[in-house]
Task: structure prediction
Amino acid sequence: MKNVGIVAEFNPFHQGHNRLISLTRKRFGESCAVICCMSGHFVQRGEPAFLDKWKRAALSLAGGADLILELPTPCAAASAQRFARGAVGLLSATGLVDVLAFGSESGDLAALQALEQSLESEPYQAALRTALDRGAPFAVARAEALFACAGDAARCLDGPNDTLGVEYLSALRYWGSSMEVMAVQRTMGRHDAPVGNGVVSASAIRTLLRAGETEAAFALMPEGCRPLMEDAVLSDWGLCERAVLARLRGMAEEDFLTLPDCGEGLHRRLMAAAEQAATLPELLELAKTKRYTAARIRRAVLWAFLGLRQKDIPEKPPYIRVLGFNQRGRAVLRQMQETATPPVLTRASQVRELGGTAEALMRMESRCTDLYALTLPQPFPCGREWREGPVVIDK
Result:
């Protein structure tokens, strides 16, 4: 039996995720276990997750996943490279994952592999340095360098999932992993438009739900997810706007320098923007340039709000946190207790026996969860991270 790993935010779980899992089982057999590495309460866009991580774990289990593991916040709310390395490193650390499956706009694994190999070449590094020295944003500089080295294969970088796919392949090399790779071509457009089978992106579903169009949103999610969405509480980053601005205005220059990806003068732009902006959208407009993308700025702002620093990024997983499982996932979990390199935790309180880096990371996650609560219409009290156990679906 194959164990297949999938990296996702499930923000929220939708038909595209369900299709990826279904095609994975079609290829490797219905008995294969699907192990998902999922972002926690904050996502790569530099924003709170739409739903809390336990609700999203439940939705993914209802949609066909077997075991949900948490990607730590310093990796989840990070650049594509750090996101991919953190997720692939965690899946590798289980000692069980045979295949890494991911969605891809092109579905062209050979082209993605060619791009990844170009990343390791000296001509690519030289072209990248030239573009960066010219003042190009990193994403633009990287695309130019890859086009110079890999030709038409670099067109894959037009798709965000293909871009992540290249980073997954690079992360597999980084960790020395022998996982097989499966790239599944996506059947949805990039601009949230439904296609023939009714599949849309997560952002389109979020837009419908925020607009109160619940029936339309539920129709675009797997049938098993609907009952779980009836009592769903949606986060609202706007509820924390003044708190975020207050945090930024209270930071000194040295505080900004501790944030990840804040070099190249970005920390000064953020400081200046924080002194003038009255809203978060205004802050982003003031700080954004061709060199500093909105996503990069949003992540820096989020890290500042959460009190995270560059040094909080773990070099390797100090533990594996379980957020949910079904019957098949329970069997995989028992096996993982024997094969995993770091300790496997089903409850946050277990980390107290580990101490050191592991306990520090969990306490940081607890702080992030307490701050996530402030994005909800009725915030829950502090300490939920220590009280909540995994979601269990007995099927």
Notes: The radius of gyration is 20 Å. The longest helix spans residues 356-372. The chain has a mean pLDDT of 91.
